[in-house]
Amino acid sequence: MHRFYLITNTIKDPDLSVTHSIMNYLMSKGQTCTYCLENKRNAHDPFRYTNPDNIPEGTDCILVLGGDGTLILSATDTIDRQIPLLGINLGTLGYLAEIDRTSIYPAMDHLIRGEYMIEQRMLLRGTVSRAGVPCESDIALNDIVIRKDEAYGTIEVKNFVNDAYLNSYKTDGIIISTPTGSTGYSMSVGGPIISPGANLFLMTPLAAHVLNTRSIVLPCEDTISVIVGPGRDGQREKAAAYFDGNKKVAMTTGDRIDIRRADKTALFVKLDNHSFLETLSRKMSN
């Protein structure tokens, strides 16, 4: 790799000291390096965090300075460019960000020498339909969460797999996650952890009002559908689908979201030979 593009979360690097340090180091090694600050976004922009049109053609690697949240948003925004990303963790706990402040320069040397692997991570595509007509669609690297809209309380959801009825819940919400997202929101409510190399869906209810509720693991070839049921006394319920905890799509009683595996995968640079379980154990013991 010789052509780099840096995306900096200026909340994590407010004076750009880390950004400029990395750029200076790479350029001192004869590499091409440009950067863009992506913490300001117009409400009408089609991207969440990173404008993919700003990335020069021929870029070999995108370096994302921030945390897992910055990396997730950058990955989904740049998915059509299919450029590998390497996360540099400037926050606290990070499962996705491959390196931290103490290992930046050795990591840059590995990239320059071609000493790395590329991991593919599956994404979800969720399509919301109203009265049988698709109205909005988007992708998520971690998860899609369906829950009550901006209010506490339960909603009724009816769940289907490949159009076959599965179950119904009175619940605070339901999480549909990828293996990457299994260490996020789903894990925090008791869901299992899945190796990121697996091609599976994970369906985890949020505080469902039934006994013996468990997460359900499904093959990635399936289509998971969730229909929002009526509210109390048959009133129209207001709900929403949240994509990676960022983009929100309003839903109401009778609306349906179909969740499938996305056509493209996110590409992440892996520099060490540590297994996923080794990394997980190290991160969780800090």
SS elements, strand count: 19
Query: What amount of the residues lies in strands?
Result: 35-45%
Share of helix, binned: 10-25%
Give the termini separation.
32 Å
What is the molecular shape? elongated
Describe what you observe in this structure.
The chain is of the alpha+beta class. The protein contains five helices and 19 strands. It has helices at 17-28, 68-77, 104-113, 185-188, 276-284, and strands spanning 3-8, 32-37, 61-66, 85-89, 99-100, 117-121, 124-130, 133-140, 143-148, 155-161, 164-171, 173-177, 200-206, 216-219, 224-228, 238-243, 247-252, 256-261, 266-270.
Structural key phrases:
286 residues; alpha+beta; six-stranded antiparallel beta sheet; 5 helices; 19 strands
Give a brief description.
The chain has helices spanning 17-28, 68-77, 104-113, 185-188, 276-284, and strands at 3-8, 32-37, 61-66, 85-89, 99-100, 117-121, 124-130, 133-140, 143-148, 155-161, 164-171, 173-177, 200-206, 216-219, 224-228, 238-243, 247-252, 256-261, 266-270. With 286 residues, it is α+β, with helices and mostly antiparallel strands. A six-stranded antiparallel sheet has the order 8-7-18-15-10-11, with no helix packed on it. Strands 14-13-12-9-16-17 form a six-stranded antiparallel sheet, with no helix packed on it.
